[in-house]
Amino acid sequence: MEAIKVLPNKKEQTKSDELVQKERDKKILKVVEDIFQSYLRKKGHRSTPERLKVLREIYSSPEHLDADEIFMNLKLKKANVSRATVYNTLDILVECNLVSQNSFGHKHLHYERSYGYKKHHHIICENCGRVVEFTSPKIDQELSGICMKHGFKLKRNVLQLFGECIDDSCEGKND
Fold this sequence. Notes:
CATH topology: Arc Repressor Mutant, subunit A
Number of domains: 1
CATH class: Mainly Alpha
CATH superfamily: Winged helix-like DNA-binding domain superfamily/Winged helix DNA-binding domain
CATH architecture: Orthogonal Bundle
Strand order of the largest sheet: 1-6-5-7
Distance between the termini: 34 Å
Oligomer: single chain
Structural class: alpha+beta
Order of helices and strands: EHHEHHEEEEHE
């Protein structure tokens, strides 16, 4: 039986892990910027400093951010980016597969970097909202097989499992 691997959270990384990750993130960001600018040209969109700031904001964070968090983070950094630019840029980034979007059971979407990072799925606690990321090659193979069986080639997917924390310390747990 295949083991499902839970991805480590940010708090579990050592200092050397963080340095290695930062260097890797810089290299990925350069590649992603090039892909994004090429995609914008191909689709007839302008490549603007504001769009690149949105991209960099997402790729500088390991978190799942919603559009308003991205907008507010950029405002705190004194970036002159409108809310409309954030939303429009997010649509383009999802379209070109550089960013993935997830609902996590909320009425708004959360965005996360996807290019160059391990493909993963999410488990969400319906009580406290905690999100756990995990990988499972067996699940990925099964999903690809299902697509092939029905005449499709799997390009991307979003798998979200909703449950309840077993731990009694869950903040939203009802007794």
